[in-house]
């Protein structure tokens, strides 16, 4: 094993090393990242909307039989709602909240964090219209790409695409099951009815995914061009592990263990993102069981990325050009979780800090919009490129050489190339794309680094019962003035 003879430092020393090197306001980063998710909301916005240039949009999204599919999140700078990446995003955000809840409370962002998670989960529940029917996409990407403007001004057709017994997608069903199981845990002590509803749908979707096998991009035509899924074994195992964490029902653990072996998830992966969950499965199973086969697997994954994986000259992990910073942040988050359970704590925490700090400014500039020095001004994002209403918005905004008039606070852009080169140009989406999943592991990793500070400073731990006094009806009441 790589670096197997390296000696661990004591936990307190680890915490002090990380804290001493900190030079960024993690609380602000978390606040801004949550604002990015608010910028991506579809449907009727709530009374506490913090994004002044956003209003209600796509409120008439409907399924093939008239089902209400309003809500959820737009995927990126466009206005398609892709269920697969939205679900993956939700699972990672919920996982980060579960482990680093104190951070969100300390930053006074716990309500916004819970809102961001619940916003997606309520949409998934709407999309699950029967036991074996789930809407996995709203909007047609080819139609969407012909429009550049605000989501509030859309007038194109928005077809909805579902999976069912004839067109199954085990990966989509499995990932959504995992997301809802994770959300169930988050809300178990806050909203019993909503939490139970999440778990019921999680179980049904897992059953759907295991009984009727198929791939997302085969079931919903056209998705392979944007979000191809190459397998479903990792998502089904991921779902089973999350259901075990949510229920402690042994059958789910047994099924996760069986599929882990069947689909070869013990092998070392090179990445962790929406299409490749093996490393996440390894980490979650290590967390749940503390068995050596899982702890060794996640150690091998982190060691490879720490000591072998290609890096840019300035030290950023380089997996591929699309979502460079997202890949690095996702791996940083997993290795922080490994450190949390005692695996190579000092090395992994320092490694995670280096990767996240690159995005925040150590790479020579900030890659988080609205944060730090010389952050991106021209993200590939239609709505933020538009002037204030009622001024019209069209492809002229796309071609404008000026910064986006609206600041897309908190969005993590795709990032630099393998040589640390970066272009802050709207049309260069390979550098300046923003997506839901880019921010998920990043936000959770930032929360993990902030947790180390709180632990080193002797801050209190918050319990779920401390958070009961939240009026959900106010938070989720549509803002009628936004029409």
Automatic annotation (TrEMBL):
Pfam families in alphabetical order: Glyco_hydro_9
Positions of the Glycoside hydrolase family domain: 26-445
Organism domain of life: Eukaryota
Keyword Hydrolase: yes
Catalysis performed (reactions): Endohydrolysis of (1->4)-beta-D-glucosidic linkages in cellulose, lichenin and cereal beta-D-glucans
Gene Ontology molecular-function annotations: cellulase activity
InterPro entries: 6-hairpin_glycosidase_sf, 6hp_glycosidase-like_sf, Glyco_hydro_9
Keyword tags: Carbohydrate metabolism, Cellulose degradation, Glycosidase, Hydrolase, Polysaccharide degradation
GO terms for biological process, alphabetical: cellulose catabolic process
Record EC number: 3.2.1.4
Family: Belongs to the glycosyl hydrolase 9 (cellulase E) family.
Listed name of the protein: cellulase
Source species: Sipha flava (yellow sugarcane aphid)
Gene that this polypeptide is encoded by: celD
């Amino acid at each position: 094993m790589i670096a197997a003879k390296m000696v661990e430092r004591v936990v307190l020393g680890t915490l002090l090393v990380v804290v001493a090197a900190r030079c960024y306001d993690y609380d602000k980063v978390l606040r801004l990242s949550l604002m990015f998710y608010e910028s991506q909301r579809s449907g009727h916005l709530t009374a506490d909307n913090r994004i002044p240039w956003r209003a209600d949009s796509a409120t008439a999204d409907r399924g093939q039989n008239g089902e209400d599919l309003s809500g959820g999140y737009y995927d990126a700078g466009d206005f398609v709602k892709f269920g697969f990446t939205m679900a993956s995003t939700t699972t990672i955000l919920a996982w980060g909240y579960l482990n680093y809840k104190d951070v969100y409370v300390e930053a006074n962002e716990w309500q916004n964090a819970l809102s961001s998670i619940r916003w997606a989960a309520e949409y998934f529940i709407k999309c699950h219209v029967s036991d074996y029917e789930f809407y996995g996409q709203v909007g047609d990407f080819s139609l969407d790409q012909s429009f550049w403007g605000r989501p509030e001004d859309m007038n194109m057709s928005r077809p909805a695409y579902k999976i069912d017994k004839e067109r199954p997608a085990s990966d989509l069903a499995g990932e959504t099951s995992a997301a809802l199981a994770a959300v169930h845990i988050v809300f178990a002590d806050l909203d019993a009815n909503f939490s139970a509803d999440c778990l019921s749908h999680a179980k049904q979707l897992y059953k759907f995914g295991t009984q009727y096998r198929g791939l997302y991009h085969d079931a919903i035509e056209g998705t392979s061009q944007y979000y191809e899924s190459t397998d479903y074994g990792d998502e089904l195992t991921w779902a089973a592990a999350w259901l075990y964490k949510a229920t402690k029902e042994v059958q789910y653990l047994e099924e996760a263990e069986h599929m882990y072996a069947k689909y070869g998830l013990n092998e070392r992966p090179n990445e962790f993102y929406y299409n490749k969950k093996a490393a996440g499965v390894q980490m979650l199973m290590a967390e749940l069981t503390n068995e050596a086969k899982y702890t060794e697997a996640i150690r091998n994954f982190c060691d490879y990325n720490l000591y072998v994986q290609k890096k840019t000259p300035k030290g950023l992990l380089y997996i591929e050009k699309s979502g460079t910073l997202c890949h690095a942040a996702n791996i940083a988050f997993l290795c922080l979780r490994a450190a949390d359970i005692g695996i190579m704590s000092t090395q992994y925490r320092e490694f995670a800090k280096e990767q996240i700090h690159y995005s925040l400014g150590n790479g020579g500039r900030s890659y988080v919009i609205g944060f730090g020095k010389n952050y991106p001004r021209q993200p590939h994002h239609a709505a933020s490129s538009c002037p204030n209403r009622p001024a019209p918005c069209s492809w002229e905004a796309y071609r404008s050489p000026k910064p986006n008039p609206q600041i897309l606070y908190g969005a993590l852009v795709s990032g630099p190339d393998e040589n640390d080169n970066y272009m802050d140009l709207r049309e260069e989406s390979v550098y300046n794309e923003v997506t839901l999943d880019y921010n998920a592991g990043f936000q959770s990793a930032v929360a993990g680094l902030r947790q180390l500070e709180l632990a080193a400073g002797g801050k209190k731990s918050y319990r779920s019962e401390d958070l009961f006094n939240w009026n959900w009806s106010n938070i989720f009441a549509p803002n009628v003035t936004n029409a």
